[in-house]
Amino acid sequence: MNRFFNSLFFGALCLLFACCHSTPTGSPQESVLSWKDELKAEIPLLGHRNWIVVTDMAYPLQTQAGIKTLYTGESYMDILTFVHGEIEKAPHIKAAIYQDRELSYLDEKAATGIDALRERMQSLFGDRLIPVSHEELINRLDEVSRKFRVIILKSNLTIPYTSTFFELDCNYWDSAREEALQKKINP
């Protein structure tokens, strides 16, 4: 009887393994979502106090539980354009956009390609970029991620201080209306 249950258990494990690791043709399944699909799935769940960050390759892997880091393998500007477009399309969120302050001090001699990158970013965001020191932004993410979700999308860019931080906020409510409401609640 014991041999029967061992055989049955082994057969069930083999069947489970086969179902989970191959398609009917025997090739591996591709069930992993692309970073774009993952971001699109997360956008409806995100709101004020959440962050989305687009980084160069050397950005550190932060370990807070609230931070989800995805390596995209794609160009920095393509990722920025996609993220910006998804935020702009979403009816419930808007973003303050922060840029590493150190970026404005770099020149072509120190970081080849920086001028062209800055020009493309200026074209995409205009005057919406708010310069803040890189270290301060990383510290803010560390603090925020203790309670709220942060999504980091790493690009294949190898130019330093090129992180762009989208701090999300509510698109249909603003601080003036919140202040008026709080005055009604606590006169």
Give keywords:
187 residues; alpha/beta; RbsD-like fold; 6 helices
Please, could you describe this protein's structure?
This protein has 187 residues and is α/β, with parallel strands linked by helices. The chain folds into two domains: 1-31; 33-185, RbsD-like fold. The protein has six helices and six strands. The protein has helices at residues 2-21, 35-42, 76-89, 114-125, 134-144, 175-185; strands at 51-55, 67-71, 93-100, 129-132, 150-154, 164-170. Helix 4 links the parallel strand 3 (93-100) and strand 4. It is globular and about 60 Å long.
Topology:
Elements: H1 2-21, H2 35-42, E1 51-55, E2 67-71, H3 76-89, E3 93-100, H4 114-125, E4 129-132, H5 134-144, E5 150-154, E6 164-170, H6 175-185
Parallel strand pairs: 1-5, 2-5, 3-4
Antiparallel strand pairs: 1-6, 3-6
